[in-house]
């Protein structure tokens, strides 16, 4: 006699409502001819017609496709190569390099882009320094080629994450067999290691492709000077385009983005099933033996250093330097313009201080609450033989296909549209809810990987000595995943501090966060404040991650 | 004419000395087994020959090629050594078919495609797997995978073939057949081989010569018959076969024989170590040399049956004699009580 699992069913239902409502409201709004709150709005396809004939939209779509394809073409091969070098070879410094490698994932793309402008923009530090040697401005940061290159290089860590975890599971004996058969290190990589992790690489390729379609911060900052729009920035500009709230048009663009990313998310899910196809049994008692690179060792290290320089050092040093100088331009001498004024300005500015406080509280308390929510959902699905776990599986996909910008917009509408929720609109709760939903897939993955490490026999043993389900969870499961949950909290902290796109629309007098304030201040042109806030933002992320690293949390969850 | 020469190879892993001065030579066409318990350093030694691990000091050469030499800090990378290695896990590449797995070494050696096809087919025919060439490794059985791994290591005519516990992943029944099959194949091809194993039966069956290793040193280097019938040390005597062990004291030494005695018993045996009367010593006798007797006599002890277990082809009996617990194998369970147990002096080794 089994009782009906009320709690579990309720958790699934609540999750479904919270995740699907924003999606539903976007679809609904896209089918109206005006904002949903205006009584005169009627159902029509007018909004679709308007957007689809807009030449700006077509240009944005084309740019987005080129950007997504280009960055995938750059990130996938380089990311796979990097993973091979890091995981399988005796590359110098590979033990301490890994956290550094993942930096681009944890730094807001807006901050990175601003860093690039400051370092290698038309009047950037490096540009001005290089000009006398190379003549004329040697490069154009705002060209399509530059944007694609930067997008590609900064997305290498995502490929690295998947390729490296797959490579770790390939038995070293397979590579050793190739070596004794007569293959050098490069041949081993090309003939054995990389083909074995091809499913994981393919998977990461699809991921990069849809991240490319959702790109917002990078093209917002780098595409703006030459008026280059992608779908997300086109959506963002629509807000101001007509003067009146053009919710129906924004909803249409959101639907287009979702329509592109959903099939890709689905494809990714299909690929995940195959990703473990070649995972092989390891030989007994075999320890990791890195493949000697021989003469390739130092060229490989140089390649690695160049990439780190370009994607981590250059933008971060750039933005930091900019936050400490009063002005910058041709003929300015660095030591004459050094100043702490911008940071003083931040501390005197009410809005900036509020944004910092908001960001930190959302990250600490909101992060803990979010992890608690992910844990409840994770425990609900944990060892539950029910078709409803499949439903949860599919629900996870929804937020993945919904970029932060659109999720923020959707939640803004939810809190306007659903009358009982209206008082909560414009509060930090609405921001927290949006954050929690957008990062649901990520949080869910961390929590369930912790849950998967709990051997079923440990819980079965508790059950045979007479523990009820809730006692098993409280006395066995939760204590065992405690460390995993703390790790999840720290990672979510870093991710929430970094977040900028969700707050773009949920941005109110009491709810600004650092990320969205940077976007808004950048739009208004106050570069001094932006640079100082960016540095503070990066420092907060770094603080969270260094605690995580100190505790031994793996960043590549 | 020696071929592979290993001289004074040392290897430390942290504080743990894995190899402490191993030297031996292998002649052309010889099949040598590195036999030892886990932790004896046998796998490390094999990997050092293959070039997958490097010793700290020592020298490894094959004919005129220097594989490793710590004095001149010469190290030849594994891929240049032209050896065949069969892994314990087989390490077949799961993304390649049987044919492609075997062909890979030839492809790396830039053999023309037509020749590759011919040579791979020939070697697959030799191991009886030509029909499975287009299958993937996970589509063939464990025994077949083991043969593919062997074919992959043999196809490019390596100077030497190395086998790491080649039969340990097979079922007991299959292993017995594979043992003979492997010996026949190696003999037919006339290649030199070094095989690592912890299974004495495997070493006895396949090898021409056995190097018994313990704690990073060679305990004994002998033919299978020599190592089983003339063990040089107590370790060698006890590692091979199934034995009775008797702890006692030397009472008398006469020629090559000694009288070993304990509480209520005295037995003559062959003295195989430097011992003088009064020294503590250990007697070892194989179970198959320990026999039941119906009457008393020299080197016989009066015994009482403890228990007997039926093993199908024999009975495994435990007997108590003068405070000793001894095992023996008998064709039938002893019916008579009391009985006598005979430990022939020629089969009792005293260390």
Structure, described:
- The complex is a heterodimer of chains A (557) and B (351).
- Helices cover 73% and strands 0% of the residues of chain A.
- Chain A is mostly helical and 557 residues long.
- The radius of gyration of chain A is 25 Å and the shape is globular.
- The relative contact order of chain A is 0.12.
- Chain B is an alpha+beta fold and 351 residues long.
- Helices cover 24% and strands 38% of the residues of chain B.
- A six-stranded mixed sheet of chain B has the order 7-8-9-3-10-11, with helices on both faces. A five-stranded antiparallel sheet of chain B has the order 2-1-4-5-6, covered by helices on one side. A five-stranded mixed beta barrel of chain B has the order 12-13-14-21-15.
- In chain B, 41% of the residues are buried.
- The chains are: A mainly alpha (557), B alpha+beta (351).
- The interface between A and B is medium-sized, with 30 and 31 residues.
